[in-house]
Protein backbone atom coordinates (compact mmCIF):
# COMPACT_ATOMS: atom_id res chain seq x y z
CA UNK A 1 0.00 0.00 0.00
CA UNK A 2 1.25 3.47 -0.89
CA UNK A 3 0.08 6.69 0.76
CA UNK A 4 0.64 10.16 -0.69
CA UNK A 5 -0.58 13.69 0.03
CA UNK A 6 -0.61 13.79 3.82
CA UNK A 7 1.42 16.56 5.43
CA UNK A 8 0.10 17.26 8.94
CA UNK A 9 -1.71 14.01 9.75
CA UNK A 10 0.58 11.16 10.90
CA UNK A 11 0.73 8.25 8.47
CA UNK A 12 0.40 5.79 11.35
CA UNK A 13 -2.98 7.27 12.30
CA UNK A 14 -4.25 7.00 8.72
CA UNK A 15 -3.16 3.37 8.48
CA UNK A 16 -5.03 2.62 11.72
CA UNK A 17 -8.25 3.60 9.93
CA UNK A 18 -7.85 0.81 7.38
CA UNK A 19 -10.11 -2.25 7.56
CA UNK A 20 -7.55 -4.48 5.83
CA UNK A 21 -3.90 -5.40 6.23
CA UNK A 22 -1.25 -6.92 4.03
CA UNK A 23 -2.05 -10.54 3.22
CA UNK A 24 -5.86 -10.20 3.49
CA UNK A 25 -8.09 -11.45 0.69
CA UNK A 26 -9.13 -8.56 -1.58
CA UNK A 27 -12.49 -7.05 -0.61
CA UNK A 28 -14.13 -4.04 -2.23
CA UNK A 29 -16.30 -3.60 0.87
CA UNK A 30 -13.17 -3.29 3.05
CA UNK A 31 -11.75 -0.67 0.71
CA UNK A 32 -14.97 1.36 0.87
CA UNK A 33 -15.12 1.03 4.67
CA UNK A 34 -11.50 2.11 4.97
CA UNK A 35 -12.15 5.19 2.84
CA UNK A 36 -15.14 6.11 5.00
CA UNK A 37 -13.09 5.69 8.20
CA UNK A 38 -10.31 7.89 6.85
CA UNK A 39 -12.89 10.62 6.14
CA UNK A 40 -14.12 10.25 9.73
CA UNK A 41 -10.83 11.66 10.97
CA UNK A 42 -12.26 14.98 9.78
CA UNK A 43 -8.96 16.38 8.46
CA UNK A 44 -9.21 15.50 4.76
CA UNK A 45 -10.94 17.12 1.82
CA UNK A 46 -10.29 14.16 -0.49
CA UNK A 47 -9.33 10.56 0.29
CA UNK A 48 -9.05 8.54 -2.91
CA UNK A 49 -8.43 4.80 -2.62
CA UNK A 50 -7.66 2.70 -5.71
CA UNK A 51 -6.79 -0.96 -6.19
CA UNK A 52 -4.06 -1.14 -8.85
CA UNK A 53 -4.76 -4.33 -10.77
CA UNK A 54 -1.78 -5.63 -12.74
CA UNK A 55 -1.08 -8.60 -15.01
CA UNK A 56 2.45 -8.78 -13.62
CA UNK A 57 1.27 -9.43 -10.06
CA UNK A 58 -1.63 -11.85 -10.30
CA UNK A 59 -1.55 -12.78 -6.61
CA UNK A 60 -1.03 -9.27 -5.22
CA UNK A 61 -3.17 -6.15 -5.57
CA UNK A 62 -1.37 -2.95 -4.53
CA UNK A 63 -3.58 -0.23 -3.03
CA UNK A 64 -2.87 3.47 -3.59
CA UNK A 65 -4.29 6.13 -1.27
CA UNK A 66 -4.16 9.77 -2.38
CA UNK A 67 -4.92 12.31 0.34
CA UNK A 68 -5.78 15.99 0.06
CA UNK A 69 -5.86 17.60 3.47
CA UNK A 70 -8.41 20.24 4.41
CA UNK A 71 -7.15 23.74 5.29
CA UNK A 72 -5.49 23.97 8.68
CA UNK A 73 -7.97 26.67 9.77
CA UNK A 74 -11.45 27.55 8.54
CA UNK A 75 -14.01 30.15 9.58
CA UNK A 76 -17.75 29.95 8.97
CA UNK A 77 -20.16 32.84 9.49
CA UNK A 78 -23.94 32.74 9.37
CA UNK A 79 -26.87 35.11 9.76
CA UNK A 80 -30.60 34.55 9.62
CA UNK A 81 -33.99 35.59 10.88
CA UNK A 82 -36.84 33.61 12.42
CA UNK A 83 -40.15 34.38 14.06
CA UNK A 84 -38.99 32.92 17.38
CA UNK A 85 -35.27 33.69 17.60
CA UNK A 86 -35.46 36.95 15.58
CA UNK A 87 -32.09 38.01 14.20
CA UNK A 88 -29.51 35.30 14.71
CA UNK A 89 -25.85 34.98 13.87
CA UNK A 90 -22.99 32.60 14.56
CA UNK A 91 -19.28 32.22 13.93
CA UNK A 92 -17.39 28.92 13.98
CA UNK A 93 -13.57 28.87 13.85
CA UNK A 94 -11.94 25.46 13.38
CA UNK A 95 -8.32 24.38 13.77
CA UNK A 96 -7.28 20.97 12.42
CA UNK A 97 -4.48 18.79 13.79
CA UNK A 98 -4.40 20.69 17.09
CA UNK A 99 -1.86 20.49 18.59
CA UNK A 100 -0.95 17.48 16.46
CA UNK A 101 -2.37 14.19 15.28
CA UNK A 102 -5.91 14.54 13.93
CA UNK A 103 -7.41 16.47 16.84
CA UNK A 104 -9.90 19.22 15.98
CA UNK A 105 -10.44 22.42 17.95
CA UNK A 106 -13.63 24.44 17.41
CA UNK A 107 -14.48 27.90 18.75
CA UNK A 108 -18.22 28.60 18.40
CA UNK A 109 -20.16 31.76 19.25
CA UNK A 110 -23.87 32.42 18.70
CA UNK A 111 -26.41 35.18 19.29
CA UNK A 112 -30.21 35.22 18.97
CA UNK A 113 -33.20 36.50 20.92
CA UNK A 114 -33.63 33.07 22.55
CA UNK A 115 -29.91 32.65 23.20
CA UNK A 116 -28.40 36.12 23.70
CA UNK A 117 -24.97 34.54 23.80
CA UNK A 118 -23.36 31.15 23.66
CA UNK A 119 -19.61 30.50 23.65
CA UNK A 120 -18.27 26.99 23.24
CA UNK A 121 -14.80 25.49 22.84
CA UNK A 122 -14.76 21.89 21.64
CA UNK A 123 -11.71 19.63 21.40
CA UNK A 124 -12.32 16.37 19.51
CA UNK A 125 -10.03 13.36 19.36
CA UNK A 126 -11.13 11.01 16.54
CA UNK A 127 -10.35 7.29 16.47
CA UNK A 128 -9.85 7.28 20.22
CA UNK A 129 -10.63 3.61 20.88
CA UNK A 130 -11.41 2.37 17.38
CA UNK A 131 -11.63 3.82 13.84
CA UNK A 132 -15.32 4.59 14.46
CA UNK A 133 -15.13 6.29 17.86
CA UNK A 134 -14.32 9.82 18.97
CA UNK A 135 -14.01 11.67 22.27
CA UNK A 136 -14.96 15.34 22.68
CA UNK A 137 -14.53 17.78 25.56
CA UNK A 138 -16.73 20.90 25.37
CA UNK A 139 -16.81 23.69 27.98
CA UNK A 140 -19.69 26.14 27.35
CA UNK A 141 -20.95 29.49 28.65
CA UNK A 142 -24.47 30.56 27.66
CA UNK A 143 -27.48 32.70 28.46
CA UNK A 144 -31.01 31.51 27.63
CA UNK A 145 -34.08 33.70 27.45
CA UNK A 146 -37.26 31.68 26.96
CA UNK A 147 -40.83 32.71 27.66
CA UNK A 148 -40.86 30.27 30.58
CA UNK A 149 -37.49 31.15 32.14
CA UNK A 150 -34.19 33.03 31.89
CA UNK A 151 -30.82 31.70 33.04
CA UNK A 152 -27.06 31.91 32.78
CA UNK A 153 -24.93 28.78 32.96
CA UNK A 154 -21.47 27.41 32.44
CA UNK A 155 -20.85 23.74 31.86
CA UNK A 156 -18.45 21.07 30.64
CA UNK A 157 -19.32 17.87 28.79
CA UNK A 158 -17.16 14.88 27.93
CA UNK A 159 -18.76 12.81 25.15
CA UNK A 160 -17.85 9.46 23.62
CA UNK A 161 -19.36 8.92 20.16
CA UNK A 162 -19.41 5.46 18.60
CA UNK A 163 -20.47 4.72 15.04
CA UNK A 164 -21.98 1.23 15.05
CA UNK A 165 -23.11 0.97 11.41
CA UNK A 166 -23.57 3.37 8.51
CA UNK A 167 -26.95 4.38 9.94
CA UNK A 168 -26.62 3.62 13.67
CA UNK A 169 -24.71 5.81 16.13
CA UNK A 170 -24.48 5.89 19.92
CA UNK A 171 -23.22 8.41 22.46
CA UNK A 172 -22.36 8.52 26.15
CA UNK A 173 -21.60 11.73 28.07
CA UNK A 174 -20.53 12.94 31.48
CA UNK A 175 -21.59 16.51 32.25
CA UNK A 176 -21.42 19.17 34.92
CA UNK A 177 -23.37 22.43 34.81
CA UNK A 178 -23.69 25.42 37.13
CA UNK A 179 -26.94 27.36 36.69
CA UNK A 180 -27.79 30.91 37.76
CA UNK A 181 -31.56 31.19 37.36
CA UNK A 182 -33.56 34.40 37.24
CA UNK A 183 -36.33 33.23 39.56
CA UNK A 184 -38.47 36.30 38.76
CA UNK A 185 -38.85 34.95 35.20
CA UNK A 186 -40.23 31.49 36.00
CA UNK A 187 -43.77 30.43 36.69
CA UNK A 188 -44.98 29.98 40.25
CA UNK A 189 -45.99 26.37 40.81
CA UNK A 190 -46.92 24.48 43.95
CA UNK A 191 -44.89 21.33 43.37
CA UNK A 192 -43.80 20.58 46.91
CA UNK A 193 -40.43 22.35 46.80
CA UNK A 194 -38.51 25.46 45.86
CA UNK A 195 -36.31 25.90 42.81
CA UNK A 196 -33.27 27.85 43.97
CA UNK A 197 -31.75 30.68 41.94
CA UNK A 198 -28.34 28.98 41.93
CA UNK A 199 -27.70 25.26 41.67
CA UNK A 200 -25.46 22.67 40.04
CA UNK A 201 -26.25 19.64 37.92
CA UNK A 202 -24.10 16.64 37.14
CA UNK A 203 -24.70 13.28 35.64
CA UNK A 204 -24.64 11.10 32.56
CA UNK A 205 -26.51 11.00 29.26
CA UNK A 206 -26.77 8.21 26.73
CA UNK A 207 -28.31 8.15 23.29
CA UNK A 208 -28.86 5.98 20.24
CA UNK A 209 -29.70 7.33 16.78
CA UNK A 210 -30.72 5.34 13.72
CA UNK A 211 -30.91 7.51 10.60
CA UNK A 212 -31.18 6.27 7.02
CA UNK A 213 -33.29 9.19 5.75
CA UNK A 214 -32.04 10.84 2.56
CA UNK A 215 -31.21 13.26 1.12
CA UNK A 216 -29.87 14.92 4.25
CA UNK A 217 -31.41 18.41 4.11
CA UNK A 218 -34.66 17.51 2.35
CA UNK A 219 -35.43 13.83 3.03
CA UNK A 220 -37.82 11.99 0.75
CA UNK A 221 -37.18 8.42 1.86
CA UNK A 222 -36.22 6.52 5.02
CA UNK A 223 -36.71 7.13 8.72
CA UNK A 224 -34.93 8.19 11.91
CA UNK A 225 -35.36 6.95 15.47
CA UNK A 226 -33.64 8.73 18.37
CA UNK A 227 -33.68 7.62 22.00
CA UNK A 228 -32.01 9.67 24.74
CA UNK A 229 -31.76 9.15 28.49
CA UNK A 230 -30.38 11.52 31.13
CA UNK A 231 -29.62 10.88 34.79
CA UNK A 232 -29.04 13.99 36.89
CA UNK A 233 -27.55 14.08 40.39
CA UNK A 234 -28.08 10.35 40.86
CA UNK A 235 -24.61 9.13 39.91
CA UNK A 236 -22.68 12.39 40.28
CA UNK A 237 -23.43 14.88 43.12
CA UNK A 238 -25.84 17.76 42.59
CA UNK A 239 -29.33 19.04 43.33
CA UNK A 240 -32.68 17.88 41.99
CA UNK A 241 -32.10 14.22 41.04
CA UNK A 242 -34.15 12.92 38.12
CA UNK A 243 -34.12 10.50 35.19
CA UNK A 244 -35.35 11.81 31.83
CA UNK A 245 -36.29 9.76 28.76
CA UNK A 246 -37.14 10.99 25.28
CA UNK A 247 -38.03 9.02 22.14
CA UNK A 248 -38.64 10.56 18.71
CA UNK A 249 -39.29 8.85 15.37
CA UNK A 250 -39.64 10.42 11.91
CA UNK A 251 -40.62 8.76 8.63
CA UNK A 252 -40.43 9.96 5.02
CA UNK A 253 -42.12 8.18 2.14
CA UNK A 254 -42.41 9.06 -1.55
CA UNK A 255 -46.05 8.67 -2.64
CA UNK A 256 -45.41 9.80 -6.22
CA UNK A 257 -43.17 12.01 -8.31
CA UNK A 258 -44.41 15.19 -6.62
CA UNK A 259 -45.63 14.01 -3.20
CA UNK A 260 -43.73 13.08 -0.03
CA UNK A 261 -45.56 12.04 3.13
CA UNK A 262 -43.66 13.00 6.28
CA UNK A 263 -44.68 12.03 9.80
CA UNK A 264 -43.23 12.05 13.30
CA UNK A 265 -44.04 11.09 16.87
CA UNK A 266 -42.35 12.18 20.10
CA UNK A 267 -42.72 11.02 23.67
CA UNK A 268 -40.92 12.26 26.77
CA UNK A 269 -41.12 11.62 30.49
CA UNK A 270 -39.21 12.72 33.62
CA UNK A 271 -39.09 10.73 36.85
CA UNK A 272 -38.03 12.81 39.91
CA UNK A 273 -35.55 11.02 42.14
CA UNK A 274 -35.72 10.58 45.88
CA UNK A 275 -34.73 13.78 47.66
CA UNK A 276 -35.87 16.00 44.78
CA UNK A 277 -39.07 17.08 46.59
CA UNK A 278 -40.71 16.62 43.19
CA UNK A 279 -38.79 19.64 41.84
CA UNK A 280 -37.29 19.50 38.34
CA UNK A 281 -35.08 22.36 37.02
CA UNK A 282 -37.21 24.47 34.71
CA UNK A 283 -34.77 24.19 31.78
CA UNK A 284 -35.06 20.39 31.92
CA UNK A 285 -38.86 20.31 31.76
CA UNK A 286 -40.83 19.71 28.57
CA UNK A 287 -42.48 22.58 26.68
CA UNK A 288 -44.58 22.49 23.50
CA UNK A 289 -45.63 24.90 20.79
CA UNK A 290 -43.58 26.64 18.13
CA UNK A 291 -42.22 26.23 14.63
CA UNK A 292 -40.78 22.75 15.29
CA UNK A 293 -43.45 21.53 17.68
CA UNK A 294 -47.26 21.92 17.65
CA UNK A 295 -47.42 24.86 15.24
CA UNK A 296 -50.89 26.11 16.21
CA UNK A 297 -49.33 27.61 19.36
CA UNK A 298 -46.44 30.02 19.82
CA UNK A 299 -43.18 28.76 21.31
CA UNK A 300 -43.70 27.16 24.77
CA UNK A 301 -47.33 28.32 24.89
CA UNK A 302 -48.96 24.86 24.82
CA UNK A 303 -49.17 23.20 28.21
CA UNK A 304 -49.61 24.20 31.86
CA UNK A 305 -49.23 27.86 32.91
CA UNK A 306 -49.43 29.81 36.14
CA UNK A 307 -51.96 32.53 37.00
CA UNK A 308 -49.80 35.09 35.13
CA UNK A 309 -49.92 32.99 31.95
CA UNK A 310 -46.23 32.05 32.23
CA UNK A 311 -45.48 28.50 30.98
CA UNK A 312 -44.47 26.14 33.78
CA UNK A 313 -43.31 23.24 31.66
CA UNK A 314 -44.08 19.68 32.61
CA UNK A 315 -42.80 16.20 33.39
CA UNK A 316 -44.36 14.45 30.38
CA UNK A 317 -45.15 15.25 26.77
CA UNK A 318 -46.59 13.68 23.63
CA UNK A 319 -46.41 15.14 20.12
CA UNK A 320 -47.20 13.84 16.63
CA UNK A 321 -47.38 15.34 13.14
CA UNK A 322 -48.36 14.34 9.63
CA UNK A 323 -47.32 16.50 6.69
CA UNK A 324 -47.83 15.87 2.95
CA UNK A 325 -45.17 17.82 0.99
CA UNK A 326 -46.28 18.64 -2.54
CA UNK A 327 -43.94 19.85 -5.27
CA UNK A 328 -45.49 22.66 -7.34
CA UNK A 329 -42.88 23.74 -9.89
CA UNK A 330 -39.14 24.31 -9.95
CA UNK A 331 -37.83 24.81 -6.40
CA UNK A 332 -41.28 25.76 -5.01
CA UNK A 333 -43.41 23.34 -3.00
CA UNK A 334 -46.26 23.48 -0.51
CA UNK A 335 -47.13 21.59 2.66
CA UNK A 336 -50.29 20.93 4.60
CA UNK A 337 -50.07 19.50 8.09
CA UNK A 338 -51.75 18.50 11.31
CA UNK A 339 -49.85 18.62 14.61
CA UNK A 340 -51.12 17.18 17.89
CA UNK A 341 -49.70 17.11 21.39
CA UNK A 342 -49.60 18.54 24.88
CA UNK A 343 -47.49 18.80 28.04
CA UNK A 344 -48.56 17.64 31.49
CA UNK A 345 -47.24 19.10 34.73
CA UNK A 346 -46.94 15.71 36.44
CA UNK A 347 -46.14 12.35 34.91
CA UNK A 348 -49.32 10.82 36.33
CA UNK A 349 -51.41 13.60 34.75
CA UNK A 350 -50.74 12.38 31.19
CA UNK A 351 -54.08 11.79 29.45
CA UNK A 352 -54.83 11.14 25.79
CA UNK A 353 -58.15 12.96 26.31
CA UNK A 354 -56.20 16.21 26.76
CA UNK A 355 -54.33 16.02 23.44
CA UNK A 356 -54.65 19.33 21.55
CA UNK A 357 -54.89 19.66 17.75
CA UNK A 358 -53.70 22.22 15.22
CA UNK A 359 -53.64 22.36 11.42
CA UNK A 360 -52.18 24.60 8.75
CA UNK A 361 -50.13 24.88 5.61
CA UNK A 362 -47.09 26.58 4.17
CA UNK A 363 -44.73 27.16 1.27
CA UNK A 364 -41.15 25.92 0.81
CA UNK A 365 -38.39 27.16 -1.50
CA UNK A 366 -35.57 24.67 -2.00
CA UNK A 367 -32.00 25.99 -1.66
CA UNK A 368 -28.59 24.23 -1.57
CA UNK A 369 -28.70 24.33 2.27
CA UNK A 370 -32.24 23.01 2.48
CA UNK A 371 -35.74 24.44 2.14
CA UNK A 372 -36.66 27.93 3.35
CA UNK A 373 -40.32 28.55 4.06
CA UNK A 374 -43.25 29.99 5.94
CA UNK A 375 -46.05 28.18 7.82
CA UNK A 376 -49.44 29.36 9.07
CA UNK A 377 -51.32 27.27 11.63
CA UNK A 378 -54.10 27.54 14.19
CA UNK A 379 -55.69 25.30 16.82
CA UNK A 380 -58.71 23.24 15.76
CA UNK A 381 -61.52 21.84 17.92
CA UNK A 382 -60.30 24.27 20.56
CA UNK A 383 -61.39 27.47 22.25
CA UNK A 384 -58.12 29.07 21.08
CA UNK A 385 -58.34 30.19 17.46
CA UNK A 386 -55.43 32.54 16.92
CA UNK A 387 -53.27 32.03 13.83
CA UNK A 388 -49.52 31.52 14.26
CA UNK A 389 -46.98 32.42 11.57
CA UNK A 390 -43.60 30.65 11.49
CA UNK A 391 -40.56 31.37 9.32
CA UNK A 392 -38.21 28.42 8.92
CA UNK A 393 -34.91 27.35 7.46
CA UNK A 394 -35.35 23.64 6.95
CA UNK A 395 -38.46 21.56 7.47
CA UNK A 396 -40.25 21.48 10.82
CA UNK A 397 -39.03 17.87 11.06
Describe this structure in words.
The chain contains 2 helices and 19 strands. The chain is mainly β. The protein has a 16-stranded antiparallel sheet, with no helix packed on it. It has a 3-stranded mixed sheet with strand order 1-3-2, covered by helices on one side. The radius of gyration is 24 Å and the shape is globular. The protein starts with a strand and ends with a strand.
Compute the average pLDDT. 91
Strand % is: over 45%
- The radius of gyration is 24 Å
What is the succession of H and E elements? Answer: EHHEEEEEEEEEEEEEEEEEE
Strand order of the largest sheet: 4-5-6-7-8-9-10-11-12-13-14-15-16-17-18-19
Please state the structural category: mainly beta
**C-alpha end-to-end distance:** 44 Å
Query: How many β strands by DSSP?
Result: 19
Morphology: globular
**Count of helices?**
2
Biggest sheet character:
16 strands, antiparallel
Low-confidence stretches: none
Estimate percent helicity.
under 10%
Protein topology:
Elements: E1 2-4, H1 11-16, H2 28-39, E2 44-51, E3 63-69, E4 73-82, E5 86-96, E6 104-111, E7 117-126, E8 133-145, E9 150-163, E10 168-181, E11 198-211, E12 222-232, E13 242-256, E14 259-272, E15 316-329, E16 332-344, E17 356-367, E18 370-380, E19 388-393
Parallel strand pairs: 1-3
Antiparallel strand pairs: 2-3, 4-5, 5-6, 6-7, 7-8, 8-9, 9-10, 10-11, 11-12, 12-13, 13-14, 14-15, 15-16, 16-17, 17-18, 18-19
Amino acid sequence: MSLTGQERTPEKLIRQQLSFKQGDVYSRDKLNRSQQQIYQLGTFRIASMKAQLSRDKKDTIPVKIDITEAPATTTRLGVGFGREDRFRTFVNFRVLNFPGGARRLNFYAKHSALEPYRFEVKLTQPAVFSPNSSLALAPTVKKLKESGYELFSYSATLTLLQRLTDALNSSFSLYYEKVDLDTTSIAKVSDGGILLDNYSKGGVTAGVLFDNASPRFNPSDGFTVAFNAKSNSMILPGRYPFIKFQLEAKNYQEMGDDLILASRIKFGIIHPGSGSNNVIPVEERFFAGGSRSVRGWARQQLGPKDDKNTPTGGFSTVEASIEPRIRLFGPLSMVVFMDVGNVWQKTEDLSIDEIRFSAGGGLRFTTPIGPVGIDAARPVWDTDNQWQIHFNIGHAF
